[in-house]
Amino acid sequence: MSFSSTLGRTALTRLVPFAVLGASPALAQADASIGDLIIASGPIGWSIIVLSVVALAVVIQNFVELKRDKLAPPEIIDEIRGLFDDEQFQEAMELCESEPTYFTNVCGAGIAKIGHSYEVIEKSIEEMGDEQSIGLNQRIGWLSLISNVAPMMGLLGTVSGMVTAFNTIASSGGQASPAELANGISQALLTTMFGLIVAIPVTAAFAFLRNRMVKTIIETGAIIEDLFERFRPQAG
Description:
Helix content is 86%, strand content 0%. The chain has helices spanning 3-32, 34-40, 42-65, 68-71, 74-85, 89-98, 102-111, 118-171, 178-228.
């Protein structure tokens, strides 16, 4: 039997139990210091940690800014509705320009076309609504990107750790001890764990924010449609 076959069989028979042994030092370190875990995960693990900080900042920002009261403030809606009832469209336009939000930006696009046909007003509102929606989707789109990249980085760390373990086996002629293999396998397990720890909550946050944003856009669109309904030509 060739040396390569012996080495391959030795690697396969040893890697399964050593994978468990490799996790033990990490768990022991977790009791002592999270910092030790991060250091043991290597550069890829550090990169995932940095990615998690970025994700947290994006989540907090969007939780604060993508609320219904921020995108379509009730007091602004009431004020615009009152100005429409009084046919003070210029004042309504000035209010939209001074208070930029999703609602006022879309509503202002429609006000700017008052005097044109209803079809022109409606098209202007739709175009601005699409533009504003794309901007909001781009903001939360970073969370979707992070939730996909984090586990891929974890997988890269896993492959890197296993390559280190196999190189250790090869350099020792297939006689590597569990202690010699533990470092590479520990890194592989840690990066996988970090990638999943980041990806799972970020995916949940993205889904929650997207659903809340879509709901707000639909509700705001209905309010704007009702405001401009008075300009629709009456049938007959």
